[in-house]
Amino acid sequence: MQTLDVALAERSYPIHIGPDLLSTSLIRERIRGNQVMVVTNETIAPRYLERVTASLGDLQCDTVILPDGEQYKTLATLERIFDALMEKRHSRTTTLVALGGGVVGDMVGFAAACFQRGVDFIQVPTTLLAQVDSSVGGKTAVNHPRGKNMIGAFHQPRSVIIDIRVLDTLPEREFAAGMAEVIKYGLIRDPRFFDWLEQHRSDLQRRDDAALTEAILRSCRNKAEVVAADETEQGNRALLNLGHTFGHAMETFTGYRQWLHGEAVAAGMVMAARMSRELGWLSNDDVARVAGSLSPWGLPVTAPEGMTTADFSDLMALDKKVRNGRLRLVLLKRIGEALVTGEYHPNALTRTLEAFCDKG
Ligand SMILES: NC(=O)c1ccc[n+]([C@@H]2O[C@H](COP(=O)([O-])OP(=O)(O)OC[C@H]3O[C@@H](n4cnc5c(N)ncnc54)[C@H](O)[C@@H]3O)[C@@H](O)[C@H]2O)c1
Ligand SMILES: O=C(O)C(=O)C[C@@H](O)[C@H](O)[C@H](O)COP(=O)(O)O
Ligand SMILES: [Zn+2]
């Protein structure tokens, strides 16, 4: 097992990474009270829920099983968690455990931030995307029909427990979606990791344990460093949003049903790369290299069917990085270095959107 720390003073916490961690005492050790609510979904429950509850010893342990899917990452679904907490008489010293992918993790984190104005929670991520990104950093939220993650809070977990064995049951499409966020770290701040990912693509495609552990570790290290330097996104944390302004627009446009988050981020990162070329920062070869790092995973590099430039503009105007009416975007200075900026000629954005919507 390897352990990293997210250094946030009194809110610091460990990330444990290794095989077969689900049934160890790691979760139990981080629980401070005598009550725990394990929240998961209908797909994950039959596979992993019992293993987790069995590891919790003599605590009062209750469970909630949510419906599966991004379309359920809503305020309405959150109520099921609050109802269960009230029904089972959980108090302020309870701990919520998020057993699942980013959807479960984001909702449980938000429920923990809200219940009695804030209780402990532990992330037990079961998708690659959740292991490398969403379980770390304390961004929690639900979606609004008009915008992604619009209602949420910053609330850090007590610990993150990454059992790489649970990825054995993860479908290919979900695994690839997680790779989009892994590749993101290489693009925004870690060019050596980007090179490494290109060199080890086939090892990762066959889910070789050593390569997978290395990819998860290096991703979590990148995320932990960014979060430790800027917990609430006053500055450089926004770099983790590469591809997301475009991607969130695509997810919202498709009603949170058609495209996976990682797929939308992949297409969004290609858009960001193309816009960076418009601004003279990336070459044609760089853009081809960005797209070429994503497409072998079957990730989309074109816009959803029927989405127009007007759709993009409308939805992107609601992005959380808008400041005083000006849309700020995360763009690439070069492969391995990103910046967030609102200082670009609007034509560069128009040309990027037109090219993307016309022919992809
Ligand atoms: N908070 C953050 O910092 C952050 C970062 C990135 C993404 N996100 C959010 O995360 C969400 C996407 O997360 P995701 O990609 O994990 O999607 P997800 O949570 O929907 O999980 C993907 C699918 O895999 C299934 N699944 C999960 N673990 C499995 C396993 N081990 N075996 C078999 N099936 C399994 C799930 O039931 C689901 O059907 C989005 O809502 C996105 O906005 C948040
Ligand atoms: O942790 C962050 O910060 C991120 O931006 C990570 C993203 O991968 C993630 O999708 C996040 O939920 C996006 O946040 P949002 O503030 O743009 O909704
Ligand atoms: Zn993301």
From TrEMBL:
<keyword id="KW-0479">Metal-binding</keyword>
<dbReference type="Pfam" id="PF01761">
    <property type="entry name" value="DHQ_synthase"/>
</dbReference>
<dbReference type="InterPro" id="IPR030963">
    <property type="entry name" value="DHQ_synth_fam"/>
</dbReference>
<dbReference type="Pfam" id="PF24621">
    <property type="entry name" value="DHQS_C"/>
</dbReference>
<protein>
    <recommendedName>
        <fullName>3-dehydroquinate synthase</fullName>
        <ecNumber>4.2.3.4</ecNumber>
    </recommendedName>
</protein>
<dbReference type="GO" id="GO:0009423">
    <property type="term" value="P:chorismate biosynthetic process"/>
</dbReference>
<dbReference type="InterPro" id="IPR016037">
    <property type="entry name" value="DHQ_synth_AroB"/>
</dbReference>
<feature type="binding site">
    <location>
        <position position="244"/>
    </location>
    <ligand>
        <name>Zn(2+)</name>
    </ligand>
</feature>
<dbReference type="InterPro" id="IPR050071">
    <property type="entry name" value="Dehydroquinate_synthase"/>
</dbReference>
<keyword id="KW-0456">Lyase</keyword>
<keyword id="KW-0028">Amino-acid biosynthesis</keyword>
<feature type="binding site">
    <location>
        <begin position="102"/>
        <end position="106"/>
    </location>
    <ligand>
        <name>NAD(+)</name>
    </ligand>
</feature>
<feature type="binding site">
    <location>
        <position position="181"/>
    </location>
    <ligand>
        <name>Zn(2+)</name>
    </ligand>
</feature>
<dbReference type="GO" id="GO:0000166">
    <property type="term" value="F:nucleotide binding"/>
</dbReference>
<keyword id="KW-0963">Cytoplasm</keyword>
<keyword id="KW-0520">NAD</keyword>
<feature type="domain" description="3-dehydroquinate synthase N-terminal">
    <location>
        <begin position="64"/>
        <end position="176"/>
    </location>
</feature>
<comment type="function">
    <text>Catalyzes the conversion of 3-deoxy-D-arabino-heptulosonate 7-phosphate (DAHP) to dehydroquinate (DHQ).</text>
</comment>
<dbReference type="GO" id="GO:0008652">
    <property type="term" value="P:amino acid biosynthetic process"/>
</dbReference>
<feature type="binding site">
    <location>
        <position position="139"/>
    </location>
    <ligand>
        <name>NAD(+)</name>
    </ligand>
</feature>
<dbReference type="GO" id="GO:0046872">
    <property type="term" value="F:metal ion binding"/>
</dbReference>
<feature type="binding site">
    <location>
        <begin position="68"/>
        <end position="73"/>
    </location>
    <ligand>
        <name>NAD(+)</name>
    </ligand>
</feature>
<dbReference type="GO" id="GO:0005737">
    <property type="term" value="C:cytoplasm"/>
</dbReference>
<dbReference type="GO" id="GO:0009073">
    <property type="term" value="P:aromatic amino acid family biosynthetic process"/>
</dbReference>
<keyword id="KW-0547">Nucleotide-binding</keyword>
<feature type="binding site">
    <location>
        <begin position="126"/>
        <end position="127"/>
    </location>
    <ligand>
        <name>NAD(+)</name>
    </ligand>
</feature>
<dbReference type="InterPro" id="IPR056179">
    <property type="entry name" value="DHQS_C"/>
</dbReference>
<keyword id="KW-0057">Aromatic amino acid biosynthesis</keyword>
<feature type="domain" description="3-dehydroquinate synthase C-terminal">
    <location>
        <begin position="178"/>
        <end position="322"/>
    </location>
</feature>
<keyword id="KW-0170">Cobalt</keyword>
<dbReference type="GO" id="GO:0003856">
    <property type="term" value="F:3-dehydroquinate synthase activity"/>
</dbReference>
<comment type="pathway">
    <text>Metabolic intermediate biosynthesis; chorismate biosynthesis; chorismate from D-erythrose 4-phosphate and phosphoenolpyruvate: step 2/7.</text>
</comment>
<feature type="binding site">
    <location>
        <position position="148"/>
    </location>
    <ligand>
        <name>NAD(+)</name>
    </ligand>
</feature>
<feature type="binding site">
    <location>
        <position position="261"/>
    </location>
    <ligand>
        <name>Zn(2+)</name>
    </ligand>
</feature>
<dbReference type="InterPro" id="IPR030960">
    <property type="entry name" value="DHQS/DOIS_N"/>
</dbReference>
<comment type="similarity">
    <text>Belongs to the sugar phosphate cyclases superfamily. Dehydroquinate synthase family.</text>
</comment>
<keyword id="KW-0862">Zinc</keyword>
